[in-house]
Amino acid sequence: MTTINVGLLGLGTVGSGVAKILIEEAELLTLKLGHSLNLAKICARNLQAKRNFTPPPELLTTNPDDIVGNPDIPVVVELMGGLEPARTLVLRALAAGQHVVTANKALLATHGQEIFQKAVEMGREIQFEAAVAGAIPVIRALKEGLTANQIQSVFGILNGTTNHILTRMTQDGMTFHAALTEAQQSGYAEADPTNDVEGYDAAHKLALLTALAYGSLPKITDFHVEGVTRLEPDDFTSAAEFGYVIKLLAVSTMSPLDGRLEIRLHPAMLPSGSLMAGVNGVMNAVLIRGHACGDIFLSGAGAGMMPTASAVMGDIIETSRDLQPGGAPQVPALGWKSLRTWPIKPQDDVKLAYFLRFTVIDKPGVLAAISGVLGKHNISIAQVIQKGFDASRGGVALVILTHEAREKDLLTALAEAEKLDALTAPTRLIRVENRL
Ligand SMILES: NC(=O)c1ccc[n+]([C@@H]2O[C@H](COP(=O)([O-])OP(=O)(O)OC[C@H]3O[C@@H](n4cnc5c(N)ncnc54)[C@H](OP(=O)(O)O)[C@@H]3O)[C@@H](O)[C@H]2O)c1
Predict the structure, then answer these.
(1) Rounded to an integer, what distance in angstroms lies between the CA atom of residue 398 and that of residue 64?
(2) Is the shortest distance between the CB of 53 and ligand 1 below 6 Å?
(3) What is the pLDDT of residue 427?
(4) Ligand 1 center–CA 16 separation, angstroms
(5) Is 81 in the pocket of ligand 1 (CB under 6 A)?
(6) Would you kindly state where each structural domain of the chain is located, as residue ranges?
């Protein structure tokens, strides 16, 4: 029976989970695989640090070169996080002929072209199931089971921290800051939450999902990325009145007629009866819409020691199977033999329905003035609700749901409406996604 040596770069949250499974489940894995996986070396910075799992001390090193470039270790698992030294170490491992597994979405979304290229050049694998939606095997679904499909759309809730915050705002009427503070106290948000709450983490995952679905890896600066920091409790109340729930939604879609990718990450109102709207707390979900498979909905834990380790282990196992004599031929890392670059639709050209909340003085003719401005720019109104006086904003709220409109037209109309004397506070806008 063969044994495949595995080297771990990183023994933090995820690395500890992977080490725990490799050591504690060794027998089960051998029974399932018919070969064994041996955790040969683990690299961390501080060998004295208290860990979630304590591996045998002789496995530990502070020198990544004990793993990277070591001819006895064919599989390198990068779980350090960050761009450097992760990028250099991954490239060096591939150059040395080692196969790489990583959970590092920031690394792949930023330096993916270079890393995937190096893997192809060296004929080595780079696997990254844990980089998108944690435990959910969405990458394997896209690049294997659903390969035959023209992917029409991918929708996702890809960040557990923000989903937890939005769930508290929805269910308990909390402010963003109160929900964030609570999430930090309970360990669901980091001390510096910028990467999560501004949407960058989810955007990195969306870029990778786009590459898997359409074979084109965009930069996160190429599409609209908007976090959750500006959402207010009133937005959630109004959403409920219209039959919607607010989520931080990732969307990647391409219409064959248009030939352009539509990629965006922003808070969106979703129909409250949709599967996505029911994804609460730290859970993640992905909905893949394919021309043959229809809608495939996957949901599960998006982060955490053991759920993420589960996804990393899936990659280690697949790589080890491919390394067996007569092992299966490799599936390309992104499921495409070669990548191409599709044009991305500017956000101005996106067509959606919109939720608008105007704050206006309470006098006759104001609704007519606002609907006149909207109408002039081809924005038609689907529903209107007028609220009572809001002392904090010095006016009454006029809440409008539009029919589908081009974003540029909507923004032009809003800029014109802002000039009306009747408005007493800035107008709020939330996009509405009715295709779920
Ligand atoms: N946490 C999650 O739930 C989750 C979910 C999905 C994906 N991911 C991804 O998984 C990766 C790891 O995340 P994590 O949460 O496990 O991170 P983490 O807890 O911060 O662990 C990072 C580990 O890497 C080690 N390390 C960092 N820089 C090093 C260096 N220069 N030399 C040697 N060791 C170094 C650290 O060593 P010390 O411990 O000695 O400092 C630590 O053990 C990231 O890319 C993250 O985005 C995480």
Answers:
(1) 60
(2) no
(3) 95
(4) 9
(5) yes
(6) 3-134+305-322, 150-300, 347-432
CATH class of 150-300: alpha beta
- Written as six digits, the tokens of 241 are 């009145």
pLDDT digits (tens, 9 = 90+) for 276-323: 999 999 999 999 999 999 999 999 999 999 999 999 999 999 999 999
Between CA 274 and CA 253 the distance in angstroms is 18
CB of 103 closer than 6 A to ligand 1?
A: yes
Which numbered atom of ligand 1 lies nearest the CA of 47?
40
CATH superfamily ID and name for 347-432? ACT domain (3.30.70.260)
Answer yes or no: is the C-beta of 11 below 6 A from any ligand 1 atom. Answer: yes
* pLDDT tens digits, 93-136: 999 999 999 999 999 999 999 999 999 999 999 999 999 999 99
Indicate which atom in ligand 1 lies nearest the CA of residue 201: 47
CA of 9 to the centre of ligand 1 (A): 8
Measured in whole angstroms, the distance separating CA 262 from the mean position of its chain's CA atoms is: 16
The predicted pLDDT at position 247 comes to 98
Mutate to test the pocket of ligand 1, among 8, 9, 13, 159 (most ligand atoms within 8 A of CB): 13
Ligand 1 atom closest to 85 (CA): 31
Calculate how far, in angstroms, residue 195's C-alpha sits from the geometric centre of ligand 1. 15
Given this chain, do its domains 3-134+305-322 and 347-432 carry the same CATH topology?
no
Is residue 92 classed exposed, middle or buried when 0-12, 13-18 and 19+ CB atoms within 10 A define those classes?
middle
CB atoms within 10 A of CB 129: 27
Give buried/exposed letters for 141-151 (b at 16+ CB in 10 A, else e).
Answer: bbbeebeebeb
**Cα 201–Cα 22–Cα 67 angle in degrees, nearest 5:** 75
**Low-confidence residues in the chain, pLDDT < 70:** none
> Residue 263: what residue type?
I
d(CA 340, CA 209): 15
Q: How far is CA 22 from CA 37, 77, 321, 386, in A?
A: 7, 12, 15, 60
Superfamily of domain 3-134+305-322: NAD(P)-binding Rossmann-like Domain (3.40.50.720)
* 160 CB within 6 A, ligand 1: no
Q: Give the pLDDT of residue 331.
A: 87
pLDDT at residue number 95: 98
Q: Is the CB of 10 under 6 A from ligand 1?
A: yes
What pLDDT sits at residue 163?
98
Locate all alpha helices (DSSP H) within 174-273, ordered by sequence: 176-185, 194-197, 200-214, 233-241
Asked if residue 159 lies in contact with residue 196, where contact means CB atoms within 8 angstroms, the answer is: yes
| Residue 330 tokens, joined | 């490799």
